[in-house]
């Protein structure tokens, strides 16, 4: 069994997830009774957070019993092939019927999940019967169509939630039947029932909360991958959020940053912080890389415990001793220089931290042309290369594990470490694959893909030249645009493409002229092996002009003036910012 | 002599106008799209030729070359535009066509170069809107796919534009159930992995066409290799699932046998929503069609690629499969 396998939280049992779950600040925010959007790239842990809020998981994680649960979470997965996204339904586009049916379907989908997931905790007591009768009367008053399942007397028992679920499923299937007919016939009259959030979900939840077994707990509705909803369903969901009933119902909505709109179906926009909070799950632009490394190490410790791997994390991903020794020699050199009053930094280790690895990489280049023998290995270095995305680390580690397993004669043999050579080989392969993936970007003109590649190449080349220079600042992984007001549509589009496909991440820094803040674009450290860069620790950022970027997208060999010996017209120097932004 | 020829021509035209026999085919970038017609058009003199022209490829040189070949056959052909990226528009074309013909017409479909999605939509339209109980199917086999490629990985398409349920086959999705993914694999393991990632299933079943039920040994071996790559990838890196990845086989030369294979899978499990992706050849897709007609809960889905290998998708030697597709009673 591969200890780095990606686990689909939706399919995992409570014990399985509890064994590997590591909490952090994002999860603490999710636990609060507020509407929250949880944004993150695929594999950043969103689904895991949502699953951990479910009663069975949360009780195990917190070691509490049902009575002590502060809330009741219901998980609602939105997949690409749900009934929300059928082609037949598109026949109703731009008609009044569409919105009504969207809300009706979303209500039923939600109600079915509420009933299904809470039924195991439901305990019927006679005192609850008035609440149930009340709910049944309310729903019955909305129904146009008789439903044989909806015989109110049947609901007054311990099977209430199961029966209500059956009723909702019946309604759901009736709606589906109607939608199916749209494939081959048009202008068919809809003759079923139509429910809204306030008419079905709110009474259902309020009735449940008044029951002794649920003790007035707030209900969290967890919508996972809500960017799979088509736009009108999204507007319906936003409308529900805009009702702001967070004392009884809270929404936790995960997206892969492609949520279609923040408008409601009445044309209002839901706003932060009045209507919702936002969390971004990656550490990609975090100024606390140490937090990410610690978080990642905790995740791996839990996985090693689960799979009985008796090894600590740094020893499982060891660095190369010979390389470390050579780098240490350079470190000692810089420490001695500082002690002799010749250092550039303020502290004894500053120059050693800044220049030891760059000098080592530089020493492998030149006439010997050995830059490819720098080994990208060691847990911390791999953590930096994963650029703050846990899944990226796990996928790479999984490939390393597979590589070793394939060579073992005894496949049951436990792997206790991954050699530096294997680590380096896989990480380099991943960098190559990432560059190759530019070509596979869908729905984009070839010319744009070439320009994106040129831009990334230009940045990589210039960052490498800085690395092997004698400048006081040598490590760069990011840039900001000094004259961002001059950005044209093309540059914006190309950078946007880079962000969308994981080549750049963004953060904010102060402008060069101190007139407010501007966007910082951070190159993914996954590309460090491709451009022979040092992915470890802090790195600075380069201010670039729009003019330079326009040249870069056409010619990846464009150099910053400080790197261009020939001082040709194509280069432009625009200075650099302070180190330690990150 | 000339009068005799004129008389024959007029009689021929009269037969055609009166005829309720239709030959349906899809004009595309593959040479196979008119291979059957090239060899057998003279036996179809009393058929009306209906060409469904795939608009998505109309600017490709290979498509233009095929159109020229078709024109050289001097067949009186009625042309309809269909489009991969617009299923609603395409099914309206099919509906309009089927509604314009006699519901007891005789139909032959050359299914070779319809996309899986379009073929299923066409068959379903005929099933829903006519009284027909049988359709004749013809299919030109490929002897090799991506014939220019020298490496193991054949590329037939690149990128993923969309994943969607096919019109007429949206099944019944139950919100509280987990998902069983069933893939009828061809050569495109990456396309299937993308579909699996999008669906996040609890159970995965991967099917291939075994040697005895494949078009030839070479194609069967490649199919097997692709399946092994895929299952290794899934086993090792992806997903915790309720059970191991199960494998099954189906036929790429006999649609009825494919239907039987799918029946054996017992997909009507009440615990799971079943989603099936046909990615092998059109004969196996027709087998799926037969199975789906009797299993209304099944969702059949399509992965629309971004780009097709229009230059060297396949090669053929005019070998064909012909059979009668019996439609079940409604």
Characterization of this structure:
The complex is a heterodimer of chains A (582) and B (330). Chain A has 582 residues and is of the alpha/beta class. Helices cover 44% and strands 9% of the residues of chain A. Chain A is built from 20 helices and nine strands. In chain A, a hairpin with a 6-residue loop joins β7 and β8. The longest helix of chain A has 23 residues, at 96-118. Chain A starts with 13 loop residues before the first helix and ends in a 28-residue tail after the last helix. Chain B contains nine helices and 14 strands. Chain B has helices at 2-18, 35-40, 61-72, 87-100, 116-129, 189-199, 217-237, 255-264, 282-293; strands at residues 21-27, 48-54, 77-82, 106-110, 134-140, 144-145, 157-165, 178-184, 203-209, 246-250, 272-278, 299-308, 314-315, 320-326. Chain B is α/β, with parallel strands linked by helices and 330 residues long.
So what's the oligomer here?
heterodimer
Uncertain segments of chain B of ≥5 residues (pLDDT<50)? Answer: none
- Please give the number of β-strands of chain B: 14
The pLDDT mean of chain B sits at 85
Secondary-structure-based class of chain A equals alpha/beta
Please give a handful of descriptors for the protein shown.
heterodimer, A: 582 residues, alpha/beta, five-stranded parallel β-sheet, four-stranded mixed β-sheet, 20 helices, elongated, B: 330 residues, six-stranded mixed β-sheet, 9 helices, 14 strands
């Amino acid at each position: 069994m591969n200890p780095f396998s990606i686990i689909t939280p939706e399919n995992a049992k409570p014990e399985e997830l509890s064994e590997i779950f590591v909490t952090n600040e994002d999860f603490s925010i999710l636990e609060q009774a507020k509407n929250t959007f949880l944004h993150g790239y695929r594999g950043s842990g969103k689904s895991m957070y949502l699953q951990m809020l479910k009663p069975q998981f949360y009780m195990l994680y917190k070691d509490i019993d049902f009575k002590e649960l502060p809330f009741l979470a219901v998980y609602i997965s939105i997949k690409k092939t749900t009934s929300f996204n059928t082609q037949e339904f598109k026949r109703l586009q731009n008609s009044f019927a569409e919105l009504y049916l969207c809300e009706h379907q979303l209500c039923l989908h939600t109600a079915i999940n509420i009933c299904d997931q809470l039924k195991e905790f439901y305990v019927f007591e006679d005192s609850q019967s008035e609440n149930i009768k009340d709910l049944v009367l309310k729903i019955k008053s909305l129904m146009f169509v008789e439903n044989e399942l909806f015989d109110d007397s049947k609901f007054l028992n311990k099977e209430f939630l199961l029966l209500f679920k059956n009723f909702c499923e019946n309604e759901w299937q009736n709606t589906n039947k109607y939608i199916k007919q749209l494939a081959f016939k048009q202008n068919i009259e809809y003759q079923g029932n139509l429910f809204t959030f306030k008419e079905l979900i709110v009474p259902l939840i309020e009735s449940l909360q008044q029951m002794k077994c649920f003790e007035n707990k707030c209900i969290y509705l967890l919508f996972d991958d809500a960017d799979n909803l088509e736009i009108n369903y999204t507007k319906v969901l936003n409308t529900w959020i805009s009702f702001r009933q967070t004392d009884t119902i809270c929404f936790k909505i995960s997206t892969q940053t492609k949520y279609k709109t923040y408008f409601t179906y009445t044309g209002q926009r839901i706003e932060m912080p009045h209507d919702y909070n936002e969390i971004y799950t990656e550490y990609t632009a975090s100024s606390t890389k140490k937090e990410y490394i610690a978080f990642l190490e905790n995740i791996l410790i839990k996985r090693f415990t689960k799979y009985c791997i008796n090894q600590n994390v740094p020893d499982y991903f060891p660095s190369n001793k010979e390389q470390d020794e050579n780098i240490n020699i350079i470190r000692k050199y810089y420490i001695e220089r500082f002690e002799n009053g010749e250092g550039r930094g303020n502290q004894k280790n500053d120059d050693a931290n800044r220049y030891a690895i760059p000098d080592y990489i530089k020493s492998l280049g030149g006439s010997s042309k050995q830059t490819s023998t720098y080994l990208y290995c060691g847990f911390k270095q791999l953590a930096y290369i994963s650029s703050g995305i846990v899944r990226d680390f796990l996928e790479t580690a999984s490939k390393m594990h597979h590589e070793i397993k394939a060579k073992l004669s005894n496949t049951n043999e436990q792997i206790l470490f991954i050699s530096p050579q294997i680590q380096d080989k896989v990480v380099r392969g991943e960098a190559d694959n990432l560059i190759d993936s530019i070509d596979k970007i869908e729905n984009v003109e070839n010319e744009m893909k070439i320009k994106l590649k040129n831009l990334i190449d230009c940045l990589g080349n210039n960052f490498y030249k800085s690395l092997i220079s004698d400048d006081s600042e040598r490590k760069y992984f990011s840039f900001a645009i000094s004259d961002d007001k001059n950005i044209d549509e093309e540059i914006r589009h190309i950078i946007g493409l880079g962000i969308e496909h994981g080549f750049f991440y963004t953060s904010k820094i102060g402008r060069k002229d101190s007139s407010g803040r501007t966007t910082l674009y951070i190159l993914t450290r996954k590309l460090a092996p491709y451009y022979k860069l040092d992915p470890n620790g802090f790195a600075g950022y380069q201010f670039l002009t729009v003019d330079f970027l326009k040249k870069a997208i056409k010619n990846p060999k464009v150099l910053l003036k400080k790197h261009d010996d020939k001082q040709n017209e194509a280069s432009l120097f625009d200075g650099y910012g302070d180190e330690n932004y990150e | 002599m000339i009068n005799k020829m004129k008389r024959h021509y007029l009689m021929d035209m009269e037969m055609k106008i009166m005829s309720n026999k239709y030959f349906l085919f899809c004009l595309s970038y593959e040479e196979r799209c008119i291979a059957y017609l090239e060899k057998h058009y003279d036996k179809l003199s009393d058929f009306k030729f209906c060409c469904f022209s795939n608009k998505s490829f109309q600017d490709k040189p290979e498509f233009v070359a095929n159109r020229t070949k078709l024109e050289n056959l001097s067949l009186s052909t009625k042309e309809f535009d269909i489009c991969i990226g617009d299923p609603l528009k395409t099914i309206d074309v099919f509906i309009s066509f089927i509604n314009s013909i006699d519901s007891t017409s005789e139909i032959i479909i050359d299914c070779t170069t319809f996309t899986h999605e379009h073929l299923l939509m066409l068959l379903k339209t005929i099933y829903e809107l006519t009284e027909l109980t049988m359709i004749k199917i013809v299919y030109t086999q490929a002897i090799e796919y991506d014939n220019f490629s020298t490496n193991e990985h054949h590329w037939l398409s690149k990128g993923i534009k969309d994943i969607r349920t096919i019109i007429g086959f949206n099944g019944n999705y139950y919100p509280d159930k987990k998902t069983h993914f069933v893939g009828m694999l061809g050569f495109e393991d990456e396309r299937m992995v993308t579909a699996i990632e999008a669906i996040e299933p609890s159970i995965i079943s991967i099917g291939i066409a075994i040697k005895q039920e494949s078009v030839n040994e070479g194609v069967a071996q490649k199919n097997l290799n692709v399946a092994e790559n895929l299952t290794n990838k899934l086993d090792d890196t992806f997903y915790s699932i309720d059970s191991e990845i199960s494998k099954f086989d189906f036929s790429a030369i006999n649609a009825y046998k494919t239907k039987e294979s799918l029946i054996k899978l017992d997909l009507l499990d009440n615990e799971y929503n079943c989603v099936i992706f046909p990615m092998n050849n059109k004969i196996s897709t027709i087998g799926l069609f037969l199975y789906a007609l009797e299993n209304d809960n099944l969702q059949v889905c399509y992965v629309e690629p971004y780009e097709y290998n229009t230059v060297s998708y396949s090669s053929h030697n005019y070998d064909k499969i012909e059979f009668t597709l019996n439609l079940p009673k409604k």
